[in-house]
Design brief:
12 helices, 49% helix, binds 2-acetamido-2-deoxy-beta-D-glucopyranose, Peroxisomal Thiolase, Chain A, domain 1, single chain, alpha/beta, two-stranded antiparallel ribbon
Length: 334
């Protein structure tokens, strides 16, 4: 109850006392106040959560890896046999990535350097520029950040990745940090959902969601095809997203967070084993991506996106969606 409400209630009470009203009226007043508080509690909506702005990494040009130099250098590493080389070549060309992708400096060495220190250096390289860009864009200082969530699947050092960020920008001691690891791409839905839950509880707060994959320690130097995919598909990148539930955020925010949806399929063995970090028969560590991954991810996306769509799309879009479905059915019936 605010000071203002409190003053009104006590002045009423004082008035009743002065006028020598029956105890019944005092009781009524208390009931009224309680009812008001209950209504206020149940009817007040949680404050909206805005995405104010975001920043994505543009790695420096000297990190660029055209397909041809990637393959040329890989053939010099002396760990891949001919079959692996032609497999990686095929994957690169059908991966849909352009020639404008980047690998961290550690993987430009022949052979690649995959030490812990290299991963830390890579982390600095992908996170600090986007943090600075985000602070500059939004004119928010590191001191105003209340929540920091960091998502990086393959690298989990100590001190933690969030601590590295807090240390670099000398952030507040009461900041709430969370580092999410080992969850691969699914961490994206999870981190936004986590931020949403935290912002529901902590009023008037700014949250940053940071996201990256560290490649230096993920490099695979064996010849198992299901593990070689990682070398070809993952490239340097990172994003910093600023979310806020402050009142003033409504003025300059880019997006409003409407709904999140989380589904965990670890109960299902097929999903559980579809992307797994393990040693190959030679004892070399790598991440196995199975064909099941596509099926499982596809199924989950399909069923969940239609639920999300029905909740957030405007009526006109839903109408067209329905028409689309119907015409598709007609096509299939043909
Ligand atoms: C691999 O290819 C090179 C030339 O491209 C050839 O000289 C070599 O014999 C091949 N090795 C195997 C094991 O096939
Ligand atoms: C290939 O190796 C050379 C050094 O041997 C390095 O300068 C270059 O950046 C590497 N390129 C790639 C794409 O790894
Ligand atoms: C996450 O970060 C917090 C604080 O920064 C740290 O206490 C915790 O050990 C970290 N957890 C993991 C799994 O890295
Ligand atoms: C979390 O990291 C993964 C890569 O590890 C990325 O694909 C995903 O988009 C990230 N999540 C967010 C919130 O950006
Ligand atoms: C809320 C909801 O319906 N989620 C669904 C998301 O997709 C998985 C996998 O298909 C379903 O099991 C969930 O029910």
């Amino acid at each position: 109850m605010s000071f203002y409400h409190y003053t009104i209630a006590t002045s009423f009470e004082a008035f009743l006392l002065f006028q020598n009203y029956e105890p019944m009226f005092h009781f009524l007043l208390i009931c009224f106040v309680l009812l008001y508080l209950l209504l206020k509690h149940f009817l007040s909506k949680p404050s909206p959560i805005y995405l104010i702005d975001f920043s994505c990494l543009k790695p420096p040009n000297y990190c660029r890896v055209p397909f041809s130099t990637f393959l040329e250098n890989a053939s010099l590493f002396e760990c891949f046999d001919n079959e692996s080389m032609s497999f990686m070549e095929k994957v690169l060309h059908s991966s849909g990535q352009s020639e404008q992708t980047y690998l961290p400096p550690s993987l430009h060495f022949v052979p690649p350097k995959t030490h812990h220190l290299e991963s830390i250096k890579e982390f600095h390289m992908v996170i600090f520029p986007i943090m600075e860009d985000l602070f500059a864009k939004t004119k928010i200082s590191p001191f105003e950040i209340d929540i920091l969530i960091l998502n990086c699947s393959g690298f989990c050092p100590s001190p933690s990745l969030t601590s590295i960020v807090v240390n670099k920008y000398a952030m507040r001691s009461d900041i709430k940090t969370y580092n999410v690891s080992g969850m691969g791409c699914s961490a994206s839905a999870l981190c936004i959902d986590l931020a949403q839950n935290l912002l529901r509880v902590h009023k008037n707060s700014n949250a940053i969601v940071l996201s990256t994959e560290i490649l230096s320690n993920g490099w695979y130097s064996g010849n198992e095809k299901s593990k070689l995919l990682i070398n070809c598909l993952f490239r340097m990148g990172s994003a910093a997203i600023l979310l806020s539930n402050k009142k003033e955020a409504s003025k300059n925010a880019k997006y409003l967070l409407l709904r999140t949806l989380r589904t965990l399929r670890a109960f299902d063995d097929k999903a559980y084993f579809s992307a797994i970090r393990e040693e190959d028969s030679d004892g070399k560590l790598g991440v196995t991506l199975k064909r099941d991954l596509l099926n499982v991810a596809g199924e989950t996306l399909r069923s969940n996106i239609s639920i999300l769509g029905s909740e957030i799309l405007p009526i006109s879009e839903k109408f067209w969606e329905r028409c689309d479905k119907r015409s598709w059915k007609r096509v299939e019936a043909w």
